[in-house]
Amino acid sequence: MFGEITNPFDPSSNSYAPPQTEFVGGPANDEVIHVNETTLQWRHANQIYWPTDSSGYTVAAAVEFAYRINFGNWSEFKSGRELLIDSLSYWTFDTSTGIHSFQLSGLEDRQYFFEVLCHYPTEIEEGLAKFRRFIVDALQGPGLILSPAIANIDSNGTFVLTVVGIDVNDLMGVHAFVKYNPDDFLIQNYTVQSDSTHFLMQTLTPNIDDFSFIENDETSGLLDVNIAITTGVGNGVNGTGEIIRLTMNHIGTRGNKTIEILPESALRNTLNEDQLILIQNATINIW
Asked: Is the distance from CB of 154 to CB of 72 less than 8 angstroms?
């Protein structure tokens, strides 16, 4: 495949170098970005594994990489050759440079830890993953977001998705519509965060559960969450915190799926005014 004289993936070859990732683009470590999307770029650190020209990318396209975000599950290893066939929208391979580009979108305000691991077709793997650690400070509420905004799970796996209110002011009530494809997902259970130290319990409401009206239509894939946070006495809730936590199961096909907060949702203050100006959905990548 790579010739009888030299094989850059064979440790006994003079042209061999160990697998090693090199980041060549994207946020620097500990950089703060003020947008909710970014692109990270990497390739093999040794130029032996870079393309010689636009047509001579056989070796570069055979190098495989996997990634993971915030210590979640590792993706499967993908070579440049596979990416050219798959035509993924978020992960691409440049045949002229050997650079892999990975687009992250829908990022929420938090720290992100993005790791990449290099792997050869001869089953030799990089010993220690390379990483980029950066902080997103972009979202401005009041709003409703799904967290995590991006999740990577195994097919038929279980995961947790949380509806979060951000930058709310004098919040009295939440009406959130969460839309999912019932052919892809089931809601196993849900929990309104109602302990006395929780975000929703800043007010005089004695028990959030008494004012929660939640209906899950499994046929249409619509979760209707209607929570009154105050009883009309005192101030509303302020700040950022969890509204409801969903435990979900994947039951459908592999690929990239979206779970949405519909625009009909509302965040009402103590004057019964809707203050919702930001919505952020979630992308679930199924391996």
From this structure: no
